[in-house]
Amino acid sequence: MDWDNLRFFLELARTGTLAGAARRLGVEHTTVSRRIQALEKQMGATLFAREAGGHRLAEAGRHLLPSVEAMEAAVLGVERAAPAPGGGPSGLVRVGATEGFGTLILAPHLACLTQKHPQLSIDLLALPRMLHLSRREADIIISLERPTRGSVIVVRLTDY
Q: Where residue 28 sits, what CATH number does that domain have?
């Protein structure tokens, strides 16, 4: 099984369009289409229903999705566990927070953090735009509301 084809499957499942998946993967939409066709041939099943507005998971795709998400989580865990070349934290972390909290409180601290760890890159995303952890739109969300669904780790920062 080709992990790259499964990554393409995940992005198409998350975005719903070939163009959206292609943008996130940094490839042409025709490449996404070819990879999905190759995976469907290998699986012997139709994974997506093609519709006018994009692609929707077919039954076989809905059954495959949790396993591929688990594979992705395992790969990300291995990547996080591997030591960075400089010995410190590295990579991209996307943090979602309300605009006021992000601007006034987080931004100065994140700037210090990236100065201390130059191989670490942080994107600060303004809420209330709905971000989906399961779609990897953010790695950390700081919110006043407790998530109502999804497999996430919740940590209370303060009682105010």
A: 1.10.10.10
Task: Provide the residue-wise pLDDT of the chain in tens; the chain has 160 residues.
Answer: 788 899 999 999 999 999 999 998 899 999 999 999 999 999 999 999 999 889 999 999 999 998 888 888 777 766 666 666 666 777 788 888 887 878 888 888 888 888 888 888 888 888 766 666 666 677 888 877 777 766 677 777 766 5
87 lies in the same domain as 76:
no
Q: Which of 81, 108, 126 is the last residue of a domain?
A: 81
Q: Which residues of 76-98 are buried (b: 16+ CB within 10 A; e: fewer)?
A: eeeeeeeeeeeeeebeebbbbbb
Given 81, 105, 139, the domain boundary residue is 81
Domain assignment of residue 151, given as a range: 83-160
DSSP string, 41-80: HHHTS--EEEETTEEEE-HHHHHHHHHHHHHHHHHHHHHH
